[in-house]
Amino acid sequence: MDDPMVIVGGGLAGGTAARTLRSEGFEGRILLFAAEAHRPYQRPPLSKEFLTGAKPLDAAYLQAEGWEQEHDVELSVGVAVRELDPGAHEIILEDGTRVGYGALLLATGAHPRRPAFDGIHADGVHLLRTIEDAQALRDDLAAGGRRVVVVGSGWIGLEAAAAARGYGNDVVVLGRQEIPLANALGPEVGALFADVHRAHGVDLRGSAEVLGLTDVGRRVAAVRTAEGSVPADVVVIGVGAIPNTALAEDAGLAVHNGILVDQRLRTSAPDVYAAGDVANAYHPFVDARMRNEHWNNALTGGKVAALSMLGREALHESVPYFYTDQFEIGMEYAGYPPLADGAEVVFRGDPAGGEYVVFWLRDGAVVAGMNVNVWRVNAKIKALVSSRREVDLARLTNPEIPIDEV
């Protein structure tokens, strides 16, 4: 293939694809365009170790500095792609430069949902997505002693709340759900996370309707809700993300809640692939499409996309996985949320002791599992989910029996 491999997006999916192309022996040109002014990096540390101060920013970068040069990856940072022309097999940069491709990967990610609140642009109001976002938020939290209000009780909201408490700030979380994480884990398991946050002094308020923000002298001063005003020196907005599909949509690619791709991550346009947060991929296990914004999806998707670009047989079929760190909780989840929704919930171990595994069962088979402060079992949980086999409930919930023997 004479034309280069072109990657649009400098996140985990794009960076992983570039690395995979080289590790799989591709010797041609690789062009990677990153709209942000950074070499490829991954986002989980921004809401975890970097935000809490446990690790430096270097922990977020995908490769050591200089890796791209050493491996002849032509990296352009701070360069956005304006247009995609699938018929001509070209992308068009902001300055009008046309770049041809043999195969193209769209790894354009997503952007935080920004509610249309008045006062949303006041100083002290934060969204969390980029390195700059994380640096600004950490600067606002690190001194401690501030009134922090988090709007949203999902993963980003609760991780930000934990980090804020760790610096000695007062924290209120305003969630639309009565129980945090209920949409992701169900009310029973979500309540366990709520208990941990309350034990650490977080003021969790469910079923909250946020109406807007109040600012004084351009600095946020309060969050207005249907039940009254909540004083705030710092506000964190964590209410979801929207896939960056404009480039694909304008080019006529099939788009619905992300760029539609098959199991090989092929889009509706020849030689164009999509991976990571922006891809809405078909998963035969659930016979449906799933758009997954978690770290492992970008990692595995970047690999599969690169192999597909090389013409190799590769399928995006790994069991979805994500993790979180909040206070003393270290958690890994593996499974299919659409199947876990409304499924039977059983526990291995006692949640009160802080070390346990949760399983979600449908028709007697495990469709998802979550290990909390229990390690070296996630691979076994994934294998159990993939097997689709009916399990013995008594053995599944017995901590003395290895998970791969239930």
Summarize the structure.
With 406 residues, this protein is of the alpha/beta class. It has helices at residues 12-23, 44-47, 49-52, 67-70, 131-141, 155-166, 182-185, 187-199, 246-250, 295-309, 337-340, 378-387, 393-396; strands at residues 5-8, 30-34, 73-77, 81-85, 90-93, 98-100, 103-106, 110-112, 125-127, 147-151, 170-174, 203-205, 210-216, 219-225, 228-231, 234-237, 241-243, 259-261, 272-274, 279-283, 288-290, 321-326, 329-335, 344-348, 356-362, 365-372.
Summarize the structure in words:
This protein has helices spanning 12-23, 44-47, 49-52, 67-70, 131-141, 155-166, 182-185, 187-199, 246-250, 295-309, 337-340, 378-387, 393-396; strands at 5-8, 30-34, 73-77, 81-85, 90-93, 98-100, 103-106, 110-112, 125-127, 147-151, 170-174, 203-205, 210-216, 219-225, 228-231, 234-237, 241-243, 259-261, 272-274, 279-283, 288-290, 321-326, 329-335, 344-348, 356-362, 365-372. With 406 residues, the protein is an alpha/beta fold. A hairpin with a 7-residue loop joins strand 24 (344-348) and strand 25. Helix 1 crosses helix 10. It is globular.
Tags for this model:
alpha/beta, FAD/NAD(P)-binding domain, Enolase-like, domain 1, five-stranded parallel sheet, 26 strands
Integer count of domains: 3
Low-confidence stretches: none
Radius of gyration: 22 Å
How would a crystallographer describe the biggest sheet?
A: 5 strands, parallel
Quick one: CATH class of the largest domain?
Alpha Beta
CATH superfamily membership of the largest domain: FAD/NAD(P)-binding domain
CATH architecture of the largest domain: 3-Layer(bba) Sandwich
Helix content: 25-40%
Distance between the termini: 49 Å
How much β-strand is present in the residues? Answer: 25-35%
Q: What do we call the CATH topology of the largest domain?
A: FAD/NAD(P)-binding domain
Biggest sheet: strands side by side, in what order? Answer: 3-2-1-7-19
Task: Give the overall shape, derived from the CA principal axes.
Answer: globular
How many beta strands in the DSSP annotation? 26
Mean pLDDT: 97
The assigned structural class equals alpha/beta
The oligomeric status of these chains comes to single chain
* Discrete helix count: 13
